[in-house]
Write a structure and sequence with these properties.
Elements: H1 2-23, H2 37-40, H3 42-48, H4 73-76, H5 81-91, H6 99-102, H7 106-111, E1 115-117, H8 128-138, E2 152-154, E3 161-162, H9 173-178, E4 189-193, E5 195-196, E6 214-217, E7 231-232, E8 263-268, H10 276-280, E9 291-296, H11 311-318
Parallel strand pairs: 1-2, 2-4, 3-5, 4-6, 6-7, 8-9
Amino acid sequence: MKAKKRYLFLLSAGACLVLLFYFGGGVPLPKASRGGGHERGGREGKREGHQPWPHFSDPLQGFVPSWDHTDTEEYNLHVSPRQKRDVTAGVFRGRGCRMDTCFDSSLCRKHGLRVYVYPLVKGEKISESYQNILSTIEGSRFYTSDPAQACLFVLSLDTLDRDQLSPQYVHNLKAKVTSLPLWNDGRNHLIFNLYSGTWPDYTEDLGFDIGQAMLAKASLSADNFRPRFDVSIPLFSKDHPRAGGERGALRYNTVPPYRKYMLVFKGKRYLTGIGSDTRNALYHVHNAEDVVLLTTCKHGKDWQRHKDARCDRDNAEYD
């Protein structure tokens, strides 16, 4: 009798599921997009790699931004962790990109390695660090002011600091980037970034989909790094000089090089949260001679609540 009841219960539950599936329209299948081949990689990614490059008679004339409100500070305060994960996945939608699938090398064969920097947009704020990067490119022999001759494109929109709590954070970047007539889903573009996300999470969310663009980024995770496509760069301060300093002492076949310091690091220790395990272990390697690793506990408003026995010494050495 009990077995009969169990069978009846399972049968009725199955019937309910069938009815829900039928009247609810079933499970929606993802629509195939015409330009989605690069998301899958492999053969389809290679096929998209041969798409013709768009031509514009006056590519910068039609730059009339139409901003949206999905990247404002007020909007981001109410974003759930799940939505943040979805956004992060979208930022690296082109995670299968490589030079042979997401980069049009024919542009480089035609005119050589020529780099085009978008003109500055009036009223758009730009940090001193990013201005230095753009000025260095414009002062190099690879720079071209003609986008028709360019092999590589660099945005004038400041993408270095994508921490929403930072005064350098550029809002509505998603709409501003996608409205650029030469964007072409990021193909042949190089994006620079030093900071992304907000403490204590520091997710790699830049606030817009980089598409097929290459990413030159500091602290890029191994999961999202695309070998032979992205560029891992060091985190440098705004006071870092554009040029100058003593000539490097590295000579042919000299290991280690003739330098006073072999390894140097200076930064926050992060007593809790992401990165704390690594930063808290740096003192094991620090010898104050050729390996100098300096950290400070003074990070966040409540750092003293998490203060440990090494904080006073670390703070003094850091200062």
